[in-house]
Structures are given as C-alpha cells and as structure tokens.
Design a protein that fits this description.
about 200 residues; alpha+beta; seven-stranded antiparallel β-sheet
C-alpha cells in the first residue's frame, strides 16, 4: 500500500513539475529573445499568454492532489480486495481531468453500480488495461479506490448515480457507515463534481 501511494505521489509531482517548467520556459522566451537579440516581435510575446494558459490548467489539475489525499484516507480505512472483472465503459473530458465510467463486478452479486473514476496522478486516460482485473479498496455504494495492476495506477471512485444507491447506504450497519466516514466517502457527488474540491 505504501508503495502504491509513493509511486502515485511521485507521478503527480513529476506531472506538476513538468507543467511548471513548461510555463517558466514559455514566459522566459520573450525576455531572453529581447536581451540577446533586441527583438520584440509580437509572435515571440505570444509565448507569455501561452505560458499563462499552461499555468492556469496546471492549477486546475492540482485538484488531483486533493484526490490523492482522499485515496490515502481510503487505503488507510479499507483493505485492497482483488476483483477479476473491471469494465471501463467510456471517458468524458473535463477541465479537471477525464471522467472514467467503470463497473466493478463482484462474484455472486448482480447489478454492479456504475462508478465515476479519476486518475489520482493526473493522467488523462486509462493508464493500463483492466482485462486482468484490479484491486479495490472501499465500499462501492459510498465509493473507493481502484488500483490497476502493472504500474500500480490509482483511481479515486464515487458512484455515478449517488441517489440510486441511497437505500444500500441506509441499510448499511453502523460499522460500515463509520468506516466510510473515516475514509471520507460519505459526501454526495453528482456528475463531474467528483473532481471539484470538496465534492
């Protein structure tokens, strides 16, 4: 578990550092060009708004850092359990990252809920194939964490249709509810709000 979190923290830090480096280079190009050549071209100065654009989108993606801490809370509260069948349905683009629709099936149970997931390390796409199954920590009516085999990519999950699972949450015993509260999974989420701070 510690290795999974460490790998994802490193991946997120690398992603953010690369974005900030690109921003710094784009902003520095016009200044360097003017000092070295005296050139003050309109096209060169376009690098500054481009750098600001990259920086703004990087700030939006810092929301992933919040999800990383939420994943850590879940992993402290729940064990990882292997599920042999995890189906990725489709992806939707948001400014915070791709919203991934996932079904995690459990042997002996029918009607697996549709989940929304976001890659906690900031990548926009399915990191690896789920053909060989995946590890899940959490309680699906509340949400959880999906860890894919291979490079230990980690996704934060919440139910796509929160209200439809209200009865299952209400019927959960006090131990299940208390554990979900410790993991920070009792908050309602709707659609793409899963990726917003405090959602």
């Amino acid at each position: 578990m510690a290795q999974i979190l460490s790998a994802n923290y490193r991946s997120l830090a690398t992603f953010l550092a690369l974005r900030l480096l690109i921003t710094a280079v784009l902003v520095a190009i016009p200044t360097a060009a003017f000092h070295l050549t005296g050139m003050n071209s309109f096209f060169v100065t376009l690098c500054i708004p481009a750098g600001m654009f990259v920086f703004i989108f990087t700030v939006y993606r810092v929301v992933y850092g919040i999800r990383m801490f939420q994943c850590a809370r879940v992993l402290r509260s729940y064990p990882l359990i292997f599920h042999p069948r995890v189906v990725g349905k489709r992806e939707r683009w948001t400014r915070y990252g791709d919203v991934l629709e996932v079904r995690v099936t459990t042997r002996g149970q029918h009607g697996a809920p549709l989940m929304l997931a976001v890659n906690a390390a900031g990548r926009r796409r399915w990191p690896e194939s789920t053909d060989e199954g995946a590890w899940v920590a959490g309680d699906l009516p509340f949400g959880g964490v999906l860890v894919l085999p291979g490079k230990k990519s980690m996704l934060f999950m919440k139910p796509a249709y929160w209200d439809k699972l209200a009865q299952q949450r209400e019927q959960a015993d006090t131990e299940h509810v208390a554990r979900a509260e410790r993991a920070g999974l009792t908050q309602k989420t709707t659609g793409a709000r899963i990726f917003k701070p405090g959602a």
